[in-house]
Amino acid sequence: MYYTHRLRANLQEWRNRLYKSNYENFPNNLNFFRSKLKDIPILNSILQQAISEYPVEESVLEIIAKQEYRYENEHFRTENHAQLAALLYQRVEKFFDLGYHYSNLLPYGSNSYSERVSEFMETHIDPIVNFLQDSLEETNFTLYLLEKYKARTEWFKHHDLLTAYNQVQDKQYEQVFDDDLRLFLFDQGIDYPFSTPKSSSGRADIIGNLDSNDPLVLEVKVYDSQKGYRKNRIIDGFAQIVKYANDYNKNVGYLIVFNIDPIEIRIAGAESKKDNAFPNRIYFNEKTYFIVFVNLNFDRSASKLGQLKVETINEGELFQNLVQED
User: Fold this and answer.
1) Helix, strand and coil percent figures for the chain, each rounded to 5
2) Which terminus of the chain, N or C, has less C-beta within 10 A?
3) 256 domain residue, yes or no
4) Final residue before a domain boundary, out of 133, 151, 177
């Protein structure tokens, strides 16, 4: 199961728990819901990206935190669901930052407490949840395509790709895999999977859908010990995708590693080892990075492979080429 698919189900469960709250447990359920949005990196990064795209002045936040939600109030008018989610999330957080009692968040026009909770859910929580669900679905679709590509390549295409790779004469080894992945993504509905755009950090291997407001940024690397491409190549690729994600203001980045060697590559500390969800996940600076390994040299039987070798990369090694700005 993809990590984002499971997270979407959990998000709906947390929303339903809050919706069913009564007078006694509403405060705890609301705090629980808020803590999940803050503590789960990918949810927090999605919201923070929306906030950065649609910032609200501090003075305005203080005003709307004190006011009852009304669409006719110009401060609550937004142009899209991302802006609305960013505004509502900031309003709720500012409300608690100012020390107001949670009951004042609930509208007073309804006759019963459950109706007040229901109206609060409709006007505040559901727009945030719907925005997060839509964002997670987009990531979920990308992970589905990458897992499908991994299976397609390992099961059916690895001989052809290795043959083409071994015939490369100009040291553009990664271009073979870049072209194959790009064609696959195009066939699957990624409208513009080309590597022409250049950012301040260089050129990403694949940046899809750049004609939209939601570019897909993905880096391709090769693990091939005979050419000296070992863990250093993966570490460099991770640093590049972090920079590209920052350049394009993305909360998610993808690193695809084509493994030529009969060896398992392990990311120590990756989140996938904790919940068995695909793929490896690394969190850095409030962003989520997915690392997918495509193994191309496991066509021999297990009895002929002998003892399987493992290359381990620690989180600290991935971060060694990164410098966080103060």
Assistant:
1) 55, 15, 30
2) C
3) yes
4) 133
Q: 232-254, pLDDT tens digit by residue?
A: 999 999 999 999 888 888 889 99
d(CA 236, CA 226): 18
Q: Are 268 and 312 a contacting pair, CB within 8 Å?
A: yes
Is 24 domain-assigned? yes
Q: Within a domain: residue 141?
A: no
Write down the pTM of the prediction: 0.78
Cα–Cα separations (whole angstroms), residue 126 to 16, 92, 95, 133, 164 = 10, 13, 18, 10, 50
What is the C-alpha to C-alpha distance for residues 258 and 4, in angstroms, rounded to an integer? Answer: 23
pLDDT value at position 240? 92
Would you state the pLDDT for residue 195? 45
**105-162 residue pLDDT tens:** 888 776 789 999 999 999 999 999 999 999 999 888 888 999 999 999 999 999 999 9
Range of the domain at 28: 3-133
Question: Which residue type is seen at 113?
Answer: Y
Report phi then psi at 311, rounded to 5.
-105, 120
Residue 110 shares a structural domain with residue 186 = no
**Minimal CA–CA distance to 15: which of 118, 85, 107?**
118
* 205 in the same domain as 119: no
Q: Report the alpha-carbon distance of residue 247 to residue 156 in Å, rounded.
A: 36
| E runs forming strands in 125-234 | 206-208, 216-223
Task: State whether 105 and 211 are in the same domain.
Answer: no
pLDDT digits (tens, 9 = 90+) for 164-204: 999 998 778 889 999 999 889 888 877 665 544 445 555 55
